[in-house]
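hey m, so remember when u said the tokens were messed up on ur end? i reran from scratch. heres the input so u can diff it against urs
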Amino acid sequence: MQRRGMTMHTRALVVVFVILAGMLLITMPHIHRDPPVKDGVLDLRGWEPQTNPMVFVAGEFEFYWGRLLDPGDFGPAQPMTWYAMVPQTWSRYIIEGKRLPAKGYATYSFTLLTDGTGETLALNIPAASTAYNLWIDDELKVSVGKVGTSPETTIADEIPKYVEFVDDRVETRITIQVANYLHRRGGLWTRLELGAKATIESVTERRLLVDASSFGALCFMGIYHICLFAQRRRDKSNLHFGLFCLAFSVRALFVGQKMAARVWPDLSWELEIALHYVASSALLPLAAAYVETSYPEDTRFSVTRFATAGWIAFASISLTTSPRTSTALALYYEAFDAIICIFVLLVLVSATRNKRFGSQAMALGGLISMGSFALDFLYLEGLLHFGNFSQPGLVLLCFTQSYSLSVRFTRAMETVERLSEELSLTNKELIDLNRHLEERVDMRTSELLESNQKLEAINNEIARMDEARRHLLGNIAHDLRTPVTLIRGYAEAILDGVVEGQENQTKYLELMRAKVDSLTGLIEDLFELTQLESRRTAFNPQPVDVLDLIEKLYSKYEHDIERAGLTPRLVLPETHHGQAPSYVSADPDRIDRVLANLLFNAIKFSPKNGEIMVGCSVGPGEATVIVQDSGLGIPEGDIPFIFDRFYKSPRSRTSSAGSGLGLAIAKEIVALHNGRIWVESQLGKGTKICLTLPIIPAAPDLNPEPSHY
């Protein structure tokens, strides 16, 4: 296993070495193939643009430090400072033992020798820090920024441009004035490119197309992976990779052909530099976060927070200070990035050893991108003649990682589909098993529900009986105490000799018997009411004609009303005897008890020569029975308590005599018949008690069996 692992790593290193070596070898043919500028002269006599379309202008340029010379100023009166190597930043030049500063101004010049073919040529200047003027012979061809001799008179700008001129002379002098006060690199630090006009135009358009394509592709990849993260937030690697691509796309606007300056010409150079640094410095923290979230098992020490803190600090400095400060700190930030890269590579090496999915491609892409950045660093420091490898290196990294994430997503979908099929088969089996189980559960549930209903009915019956028992005991204690006390008092009076004589003793004994009879009636009423409330009393409902029933019961108690000195009156519908019977399901004995309680209650509270009316009417679905007297009436505040047992407050009709159970018994009997009972009364206008009984369609059975409730 170890030998196999070493072989895999060796192959990866060989691939990286071949790619990096290829990048280096790109520069070598041009170094030896293109004639250099020697002692300020570029000899291109015999040059054939058809076979060698473009020449990279590099070598020894005439250099005049601290002087801005026009083409007409050259001559013996302007001695040359030195032959300067181009491309190179002038801060690397050492003149008379002293290194030149980054800030300053100077003039470059060289003489171009050609065959004077009359062909239109073009000279491309990719970059010059940070403002320049270019003359072809005595004609000013282009100005980028404003060249000055002080920071106040210099305006920085940096955008690739090319100039055209006709090769109609065998000797052409090219003069370039450069000034820099804001960048750590000053001078001509990139190679100039000379070729036919069509060639330079084609190269420029191709570079613009590549930059625009890179920007569009990176934006699309970034937005796509951020949308993937929005759909599945658990996988944060999509978010980090999407942000990495977006940051890279922003960086692409400020490097190469500098599309940002072409799209927004009024954008200041200082803001361009700041945005470039903010986007470029964000790449490494996002890359570290992407690697660590992709391989958390292999991350022993997280550097994302440190990288993010360094980026925030450097980005803040870039946005709030001048480019002179941010470009000077860029070297230190690059060293910080190099340290972070080492830790990120350690995570990738661990992931590769543990054979994590996609780790080899990520490690290879990381090495290539880091190598491209290293080559660009050497190029910017003047140690290489070619540069701008970081852009294709990062694009390659983004595409490889996008492919890796796509493969991971595809495999995850395939796994989900396979598991879904397995779950579908398992689900079918479970459905079959559940179907039989559900049948058994339904059958058992029905049995349990039936048993539960029976138990609930029994429990309700027991609860009702227990409630009736408690009410019975409470009522006995409530209403028997006074009669028993009186009987005991009468008996003690006789026994103690307080009551003397046969006649007086007989009177007291009669009083005692009356109390005993009253007590017996009270006990009977109380027992009956308790039986009614617990639904344990005999109840014999049968279809009866309600009008006939009320008429018979009225005749039964008519003489009792007359003996009390009152006038009875029966009110029934006039067509009573001629219309079809109106049946109700009722127990005649119980209805008799209700009517008797209501009538004797009315007799008790009606004055002499008063009137008691008994009436019955049949309406939709129910019959209404009315007992009305001409007594004193009931106070409005007492009406809600009329049907309460033992309600004998001064406000109640039962306060003067009786057990206080008659109306309560009437209420329970009416409730057994599924009817309603209520009171209507006003002081001084008498009282009317109404009750209703439901009408039934016909009389199917005239001899029903007794039922118990």
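this time it looks ok to me. Residues 70 and 175 are 7 Å apart (CA to CA). if urs says something different then somethings off w ur setup not the seq
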